[in-house]
Design brief:
The protein has 366 residues and is of the alpha/beta class. The chain contains twelve helices and 16 strands.
Length: 366
């Protein structure tokens, strides 16, 4: 955790002088942050990192010369510096997160500078204490292979590089037809969630996912998971019915809750108030699971700042759910899972690479 009595030194990297000025002025208004310097491109940034030794770097994804993704792939294995991406609505932001960036904010539309600065300031403060996990390669989103029926298994690919082989199918077990899994994550969660999802079989019980993410990106993130994982993944719509082999991602700026109607379960996706400071909120989903679900259920809480999801996971456990928390060693930010563990909401902890195995072993017992 970053010392609270020390200012966070930030290097702002953007080829636009207007963007550099706006970001620098906005961040420096926080008493927790000081601007260590600015850079106009990757080459300039690399030199200034050695010279200024910032605690966090904000980075534009699209820059002349070397782009932000290639820069991160070169930088992070040598210098594990927390990086917050500043990106337009662009799928390449997920490639940059895969390369090791901690989080991202969407570039502001006209008139949105104030909300942009608030979001960026919050993410910089979170990133200062983040554990950077540089990755050896970047997974790019290639066209998805056709999904096999439940009796078969497809192997999704990314270009010429296959992902993990398809895990064995769970098979036609009625108990798993009536099982629901909920997963919540925040900072560092896009890649941590992928690490879990790509290890799960195509016929996994119905899943609901909340990932804190700016408007516009949840559809792209759901599409990415759909290409890289064995089950079907899509952005949730109000009224969607749950079934095996389907994972639904909460749309940005909507609260997703589960709704029971007899033996069927659907999702409600409504604007609503923020819960635990977020929309979508992990707590909103988890509280609804505890209240509505009358079949077997599992809850998973992963990397993120703050405590969203901790209280809801405790309610789920008290209602009979099997609960899993990401461990400190693999969490980019050990906040949400730490609080959940400390209040007794978590039955077992594991790394993002091990959580799928922990879940599958429990499903086999059911």
């Amino acid at each position: 955790m970053f010392p609270s009595n020390k200012k966070i030194r930030v290097l702002v990297v953007d080829d636009s002088v207007l963007a550099r000025t706006m970001i620098s002025n906005g961040l420096s208004a926080s008493p927790r942050i000081e601007i260590a310097g600015t850079a106009i491109n990757a080459k300039d940034a690399r030199a200034k990192i050695d010279q200024l030794r910032p605690d966090v770097m904000t980075l534009d994804v699209e820059m002349p010369g070397m782009n932000g993704i290639d820069f991160l792939k070169q930088l992070l294995p040598a210098v594990p510096l927390p990086v917050i991406l500043v990106s337009s609505l662009d799928l390449r932001v997920f490639d940059a997160l895969s390369a090791g960036a901690v989080d991202f904010v969407r570039k502001p539309e006209p008139g949105q500078n104030e909300s942009f600065v608030r979001a960026l300031t919050s993410k910089v403060i979170s990133a200062a204490g983040a554990k950077v996990r540089p990755r050896p390669g970047v997974i790019t989103a290639a066209p998805r292979t056709a999904a096999a029926p439940v009796g078969g298994a497809r192997v999704p690919t990314t270009g010429s590089k296959p992902l993990l082989p398809a895990p064995p199918l769970l098979g036609g077990r009625p108990s798993l037809d009536a099982t629901i899994i909920a997963l919540g994550a925040s900072t560092g969660g896009t890649e941590a969630t992928l690490e879990v999802m790509k290890r799960l079989p195509a016929d996994i019980p119905a899943m609901l996912i909340v990932q804190h993410m700016p408007t516009g990106f949840t559809q792209m993130y759901a599409d990415r998971l759909n290409r890289l994982c064995h089950m079907e993944v899509r952005e949730a719509k109000n009224g969607d019915e749950l079934h095996r082999g389907l994972a639904l991602l909460a749309p940005a700026d909507y609260q997703m809750r589960i709704v029971r109607s007899g033996m069927k379960y659907t999702v409600s996706c409504m604007p609503g108030e923020k819960v635990s400071g977020h929309r979508p909120s992990v707590d909103a989903l988890f509280f609804s699971m505890a209240e509505q679900v009358k079949c077997k259920m599992a809850g998973i809480i992963m990397t993120g700042m703050g405590r969203d999801g901790a209280d809801g996971l405790l309610k789920m456990r008290q209602a009979g759910a099997y609960t899993i928390g990401q461990d400190k060693e693999s969490s980019v930010v050990y906040g949400m899972p730490m609080v959940a563990y400390n209040i007794g909401a978590v039955q077992i902890q594991g790394s993002c690479e091990d959580i799928a195995g922990i879940l599958l072993r429990q499903l086999q017992r059911w």
